[in-house]
Write a structure and sequence with these properties.
This protein is mainly α. The protein is built from ten helices and no strands. The protein is globular and about 55 Å long.
Length: about 190
Amino acid sequence: RRTPRTASNIGSSVAFHPEFVLETHAEVRLGSFLKPFHLTGLASAVHQLTAVGFTTQESLRALDYDQCKLMDFKADDAERILLATWLESNGMHHYGEGLVASGCVSPLHLLNMSDATFVRAGIRAIGHRRQLFRYLREDESLHVRLDQLREIFDKEDRERRQLDAQEGWGGSSASSLTPAQIYAVTGAGRR
């Protein structure tokens, strides 16, 4: 939890944790941009991003999934950052909080959403929903990434089935994919 730095708590027994504080103008702006996406480690993610040069929401457009993997974000924070960036690049950032509240925490999840799901997520304007569907159809990098994740998931599933058949029992179900990626792979394209 963030402990405010005021004169009243200097010298108190309350621990001060600088990793929970956004101090610079760039950190505060980036934190405000990502806040609607409910990252599990918002301050930590902002510090990591600004440390490698991503200091504005515009600069995040150059961020890709491989770079996020290198930064080792907590849980599905990388997916949420990519969702925020994808929505911003398509002029739909203001729908982020509603999408996250409806369970969409990755740009890959958008591929699995129907028109009715978008309405429930707060995207009431039919023109905006049509734009989102068009952007999703035209985004080659998103489809390439989904195909890569499907290959990984299928390979792990085959290996898991082989182990189960050899050992005769339900072995490990661990996956190298995050829950958000598994959801996207197993549900994407079903409308």
